[in-house]
Amino acid sequence: MDVVFVSEWEKQDQVRSYVLPTPYVCSWSCRNVLAFAGPVQGPWSDASLVRPIHVVDPDRPWDVHSFSTQHGEDIVALEWDPSGTQLLSAERFGEVKLWSMKDYLVNDWHLVTSVDLDGEEIVTLQWLHVGGRLTLNNMNMTSTVFNEKITHQSYAPSLSEFGGKACNGWVAVTATGMVYITALSKDNTPTTVSECLGNVRSRVVVADAAFTVKGFVIIALSDGNSMSPVKFYKLKLSNVNEKCTMHIEPLPSFFLRCAVDPNKKDKYTNVTHVKFEHREGVEQVVVVVSGTNSSTIEVWGLRNEPVTLHKIFQPQAPAGKQPMAVKWGSLTTIADRPLVTALAVPKLPVQSSNLIESKGYDTKFFNGSALAIAFQDGNIHLVQRLTLHTLAMFSLDSWQRGLEETVAKRQRLSMFRFLSCCELSGTCCGLMGVDPGGRLYVFRLTPSLTQNVDPALPIRHVVSLLEYCMLSGWDCWDVLLVVGPSMVESVIDKLTDNYSQQNPALQQIHLTKFVAIKAALYRLTNNGGGKSADCYAKLLLNAISSSLKALLRPTQLGSQDRGPAEKLAVLCSKSTETDLDKVMINLETKEFVIEPVTLQSLQQLIQWVGDFTLYLLSLLPTQQGMPNRVGSTLLRDALFLQMLRELLVMVRIWGLIKSSCLPVFTATSDNLDSLQLLFKLLTKAWMCAKEERLSSDWDDSLVDECCLLPSRMLVPNLDSPPPAEGIMARPQSKQPILVQVGNAPSQTTSHMMSYPTSDPMWRSGGEHLSHDIVRRVHLGVSPAEDVKQCSRCSSTSLLKSFAKTSAQKAWDQRWARQCLCGGQWRKVTEDDD
After folding, report:
1. What CA–CA distance (Å, rounded) separates 696 from 436?
2. According to the record, where are the WD repeats (predicted)?
């Protein structure tokens, strides 16, 4: 466990009145975007912000976007929705606001709706469960089958609409014992209902909410007094005639062990934290009770206990069917710890037996089975959630002492040496926290925490987490935190082997995510730039192929025969014909007829296919002995080269319909058929790749013709792939990266790519020249229209879509949520220029 980076504000040393009892709140989304908020006065330089929320991509912690919420009181709750695009914020006295990204831009937020809870003080706030979940099976980690390792569980949504569709909304518990359910309609109109949890209103200081398989909402609460019981309630929500109704049922409660211990009941008096150990599990709950200078932590769990019957009723009970009752029982207690300031529970759904979890440190895999606890003395402990056995520890106090030069500064900032709030990432490989001074910390948590383990074990753990991200759609940035440069090749090999063993349909579904993860892994190494560029080219070509083939329709509706795209794929997979026109003869060209307007609107994509084919073939003679060069993996991928052949055949046919949609090449001879030449060379390269020949065994005629290719046609200057930037471009080090908000590090953090920058066939065409990575058009040095930029790779694209045809709109919509690399889009403002 070590610090990845610390992000502080420009006015961090100016300790002012913003050190208030009100703690910070933070949240980590499944798309690996961090959000945190604090008191009304903070170290941020913009005084016009009113109780702002700060949003940051952890790969670039110096680029923090802050927006004003206009809350009248301090923000006490902050929650991302399951999709990672909407954010809930709640102030102390009853106002809840729903924020959403505008056009999926991480630095452009707008208010969707707000709800006033009658001025009630909010204690806890949670999104309702939308149903279904993927669970990582801890007992089948060695399996290579996705369906055995990662299982889908039928989870009923907390609130359903007509037809069983999940209804979005949230649940809030207030300090007077009221529970509020807010449901959102299709147009985001809120409808709120409220009920009292008990027969009468009672004081509530801490509370938490969790969800069951059957769709019930379970509320745990305490009035803050250690002598009072921790109470539980079950909420059953229903939607009758478009009106939400709520039925509340009390559940068994328990008294804390410290309350019945004569030596502890006067020492620990205040309940400060009550949390279920998982959002989707109600079997265990952790309670923190604090005194003046110390805290005790208790873990309680549900268990079935036999009911003792009077002897006169025992003969009537059937044999083997003794009545059972569900009761709370104490599992573990640790006492005499420093004051607990923050507690974070895991988000990763892990399926494992209690016997395995009770020996959590023996399973050598903590993800989903560990809690993060921050103490006032600056220590942060990662503990097993059932046994509270310490798995890892980090001392914030001792680490900060090494950074502060003067004694006066140490004394002035001594109050900041603990976390005010913390939260684990989705896969539990990262931990974020904010101290009372507003500093943002991100910690790296290695899945394999036990020393002297099998060297293959960390690889297997990382691969399992990457596969979970692949199937769930989560961003994998937090998993990449724990992948060292020496592990990259082993992780990629294991991930590729597991992926190749899945059925073809499953491979096709997750192909895009799989290739994107491989590209991100290659970017972690100094010599992986070429292979990373190949992955991005494969991503783009696969997207272009899918979009163009989707335009094809069979001539007869309802026909059981193969469609034109399937027929073309079968033909190109079997035919070794190098003459493009002869291949076209075997196809029914009328099935490939597309409107000329549509073809012309896609000319830029068609042009990129032609340019890339020309560029790839021109690299073939240089691949011998250079496995890390750009194009090396693509020239050995028979499926990729077959896809290129299919596209060239389609382009040739479409050229007969609309000649202006054809790619434009600059040839030295007017009589040269450029498409025919590229198809012939591509077919020969495909046959070599299909036979799995080494680069040294390629046909001499193919190598000679590719050597002459630059003299016959002008090879275009393709844009270089986006370089690795930000935190992920730094190799793992014990020294954290210290950054200041608004000031990018002066030293470059980009990896050197494996290709030489002086190569005339691969250069960006200008340091400040913008290029639209989505539409494949040049934007110039100063684009006239607003542009958006990827928060990970800095690639740019036009913010507003000017598409006129449905094919263009579908292509733009494909990349509306995220960049080609999987990063978030951010709007480029005047301050960025």
Report:
1. 62
2. 68-102
Mean pLDDT of 553-578: 81
* Both tokens assigned to 610: 């032609």
Average pLDDT over the chain reads 84
Choose the final residue of a domain: 444, 469, 494: 444
Q: How many CB atoms lie within 10 A of CB 312?
A: 7
DSSP strand pairing (270-278 vs 243-254): unpaired
Q: Is residue 504 a contact partner of residue 605, using CB atoms and an 8 Å limit?
A: no
Which pair of tokens denotes residue 358? 């009770």
Model-level pTM?
A: 0.90
Examine residue 577 and state whether it is found in any structural domain, yes or no: yes
DSSP string, 667-703: BSSTT--HHHHHHHHHHHHHHHHHTT--GGGS-HHHH
8 A C-beta contact, residue 158 and residue 137: no
What SS3 class is residue 66? strand
Give the residue carrying structure tokens 């990262």: 430
Question: Confidence band (pLDDT; 50, 70, 90) for 402?
Answer: low
Judgement on whether residues 794 and 689 belong to the same structural domain of the protein:
no
Number of domains in the chain: 3
Distance CA 780, CA 787 (A): 12
Query: What are the two backbone dihedrals, phi and then psi, of residue 356, each rounded to the nearest 5 degrees?
Result: -70, -40
Q: Quick check: is 500 in a domain? A: no
Asked if pLDDT for residue 231 goes beyond 60, the answer is: yes
**Longest Cα pair distance anywhere in the chain, in angstroms?**
107
Q: Do 547 and 610 fall within a single domain?
A: yes
CATH number of the domain that residue 384 is part of: 2.130.10
Cα–Cα nearest to 169, from 193, 135, 133: 193
Per the structure, the complete domain to which residue 678 belongs is given by 522-733+750-763
- 565: number of Cβ within 10 Å: 21
Structure tokens at 160: 């359903």
Residues 264 and 249 in one domain: yes
Structure-token pair, residue 636: 């050995």
